[in-house]
Amino acid sequence: MILVESDTLLAYGAINQKVSKNEMIFLEGSEPHYFFQVLEGEVKMISLNQDGKELIQGIFKSGQCFGEPPLFVDKPYPSSAVAIVDSIILKMSKKNLLALLDDKPSIAIKLLEIFALRIYNKALSAQILSNNNPEEKILGFLNMVKGDMGVENQTKIPYTRQQIADSTGLCVETVIRTLLKLNNEHKVEIKHHKIYY
Amino acid sequence: MILVESDTLLAYGAINQKVSKNEMIFLEGSEPHYFFQVLEGEVKMISLNQDGKELIQGIFKSGQCFGEPPLFVDKPYPSSAVAIVDSIILKMSKKNLLALLDDKPSIAIKLLEIFALRIYNKALSAQILSNNNPEEKILGFLNMVKGDMGVENQTKIPYTRQQIADSTGLCVETVIRTLLKLNNEHKVEIKHHKIYY
DNA sequence: CGCTCGTTTGAGAGGACTCAAGGTAGGTGG
DNA sequence: CCACCTACCTTGAGTCCTCTCAAACGAGCG
């Protein structure tokens, strides 16, 4: 779901920004000042734990906005945002966002829907992360991903094994071994290292 | 943070409902029709995994609303709501909630803030659940709880060990043994079985 | 061809979970 | 005041399985 077309954002003072692969957009613990939207490319939100292990909190693609919640709660970012590939993002100051929401209540409602969807997905994520059976974790994750893609039939999963590991709290090797098992049980299909579910 | 006073809800057609301890308010997988708010008592949102293990997604106390996100995304409940103690809740139809938000944009903004806070907390929860060091899990949880209570100094943690286990994805025994260790390391304090942090 | 990024395989150790049994505290009723 | 009940907390022993570490393979691209 898309909040607003980029034209409207630009009319409200948003600006373009190029970010290269692996470049950080904002850092866990810092103060939020901007609203962001992906114009082109792909952005991940990650948290690092004390051992340096990465947790993927979400991946945002073209049209999706990200990093707004802390703007509304006056708290520092709980995660960092990093470009996965060379990307172009729009950024708009908090003040302008509030002005936009004030001018157009329908956008506020739409943002409510986006937030609601994110809460829904985070409830699913919590179930995935709390499960200590790797098979269920991975199947749960694949289901969630398909739900987000709005797909019913078998489809290629656009995640690397490392990304699945970082999203489910497993290590890569366990993801690989579990995917093999799921393949043998015909619960997923692996062709040329690509995952179909 | 409180969304609206109960008077306003009642004016918009909300009704009172008594629920006894352990009574279910809505069931994981069912269709959402109502907006809820706790008047008195305490309500938990839980998901059950395939082994029947319970995950606490959140606990809501007097004044707090719960179970709204699925109303906005047209999806079934990802969790069940259960009263922890005898409680009184307000319930209002989805239609009336939308009318209320339409009439009073300031409430829509407030709901945005509540959603934002919930996303923030769920980001913290994800970090806690994905961590596989029990000490960090529990300390992370205790920090989150204190943040919610708005307390800085050492305070009594109003959770049972079982509830901490169900919130962090650990088993009770591990929670107990880890709390003992944290007590010895002077990172928490245990007096008469009560936890202070 | 040679890099880079992602995937795979193996061996070993650690530690959280499970199961079983008992202990403690606070409330209720006789 | 005591006995009892319920809900919660505690301890011990053993197994399983995920993580870690190390090394190598595969594929895509300039």
Question: Which labels suit this protein?
Answer:
homodimer, 10 strands, 2 domains, Jelly Rolls, 4-stranded antiparallel beta sheet, 43% helix, elongated, alpha+beta, Arc Repressor Mutant, subunit A
Describe the structure concisely for a colleague.
2 copies of one chain form a homodimer. With 197 residues, chain A is of the alpha+beta class.
Helix content of chain A: 40-55%
Strand content of chain A: 15-25%
The CATH topology of the largest domain in chain A: Jelly Rolls
The main sheet of chain A comes to: 4 strands, antiparallel
Shape of chain A: elongated
What do we call the CATH homologous superfamily of the largest domain in chain A? Jelly Rolls
- Quaternary state reads homodimer
Q: What is the overall number of helices of chain A?
A: 7
Total domains of chain A, how many? 2
- Spell the H/E element sequence of chain A: HEEEEEEHEEHHHHHEE
Number of E strands of chain A: 10
Fold blueprint:
The structure is a homodimer of 197-residue chains.
Chain A: H1 6-11, E1 15-19, E2 24-26, E3 34-40, E4 42-48, E5 54-61, E6 65-66, H2 69-73, E7 80-83, E8 87-93, H3 94-103, H4 105-130, H5 134-149, H6 161-168, H7 172-184, E9 189-191, E10 194-196
Antiparallel strand pairs in A: 1-8, 2-7, 3-6, 3-8, 4-5, 4-7, 9-10
Helix pairs in contact in A: 3-4, 4-5, 6-7
Chain A binds a DNA duplex (30 and 30 nucleotides) through residues 132, 134, 160-162, 170-174, 176-177, 180, 192-193.
